[in-house]
Amino acid sequence: MLNRLIPTTGEQMKIGNSALGVAVAAILAGGLTAGPAHADDVVAPDAVITAPALQDEVYGRKALTFSGTATDDTGVASVGIAFQDRKSRLWFRPDGTWGAYQRYATVLSQPGTVKTNWSYTWTPPSAGSYVVQAVAKDKAGHPDKVLPFRRFEVDTAAPDTTIKIPTGATTQIRKGRSATISGTARDDHGVLNVYEAIENRATHKWLRPGGVWGAIYWHKKSVVRPGAPGTDWSFGQSFSTLGTFTVQVRASDRAGLADPTPASRTFKVVR
Ligand SMILES: [Ca+2]
Ligand SMILES: [Ca+2]
User: Fold this and answer.
1) Quick one: pLDDT at residue 42?
2) Which of 51, 152, 186, 268 has the most CB within a 10 Å radius?
3) Closest ligand to residue 127's CA
4) 218: CA distance to ligand 1 center in Å?
5) Ligand at shortest distance from the CA of 61
6) Is 16 helix (H, G, I), strand (E, B) or coil?
7) Which pLDDT score, from 0 to 100, does residue 199 have?
8) 108: CA distance to ligand 1 center in Å?
9) Of the candidates 195, 193, 163, which has an alpha carbon nearest to the alpha carbon of residue 180?
10) Using CA atoms, how far apart are residues 13 and 11, in angstroms rounded to an integer?
11) What's the CA-to-centroid distance between 142 and ligand 1, angstroms?
């Protein structure tokens, strides 16, 4: 009976090798090498990512600066950074392709000291879902015990804006009256705001802050659910000048992209 409860030697070996395999894979993935034995340094360094401060931020495809701090009891020798595509699980390579794990050396403000800032600027090659991982190493070669990471999104798809009220393309309104303009906006990662621009069709000038007319200006308006993939929005617009005006509305997303094809309505302001 006892024999049945104890795994055979073969099974034990299998389990042992499997666990070892995982450990080795983890070390290889981390790109770690055994550091020189420093009997007087038994404390691992600790890297912290401060930018992005939060998980799941959304950025446009532009140069992104990742930064943070690293501490150690004897001195931080380096802080490495690596970028993974969360869909393919592959890592960003120096030649711009995706493949085996690759770490890049960040710039340290105080290399070799017990506390340093670090930073690294990276331009994502395309839209996608990524994770950035950092690892500090101390002068004894010890890596971080727990590697800090941030998930983030890179968004290149602009939002879309729809005006629902007024329903008709052209609305007649009395001078001095206010019209309610409302609608919806959609985005793959989240709508942040809508913006309104008003053009006088006779002069082709646009309403600017302070009530002056000139070059196009987009006036910021709030949405009901900022950050949501779909949201309603509504604002009032008064018309104090006789004439014909085009109102354009375009949404912006969390990455700062604006709808390239704004929705529009025409208002005829009469006495
Ligand atoms: Ca240390
Ligand atoms: Ca978007």
Assistant:
1) 87
2) 152
3) 2
4) 53
5) 2
6) helix
7) 98
8) 17
9) 163
10) 5
11) 6
> What's the 122 CA to ligand 1 centre distance in angstroms?
28
Burial of 149 (0-12, 13-18, 19+ CB in 10 A): middle
**Where in the sequence is the domain holding 138, given as residue range(s)?**
35-154
| Positions in the chain short of pLDDT 50 | 1-35, 37
Omega into 45 within 30° of 0, i.e. cis? no
Domain count, the chain: 3
Tell me the CA–centroid distance for residue 91 and ligand 1, in Å.
27
Report the separation in Å between the CA atom of 137 and the middle of ligand 1, taken as the mean of its atom positions: 8
Dist. CA 34 → ligand 1 center (Å): 14
Residue 41's pLDDT is 83
Q: Which two tokens stand for residue 31?
A: 């790109």
The closest ligand to the CA of 259 turns out to be 2
Measured distance CA(66)–CA(46) in Å, rounded: 16
CATH number for 103: 2.60.40.650
Is 134 in the same domain as 43? Answer: yes
**pLDDT at res. 5:** 37
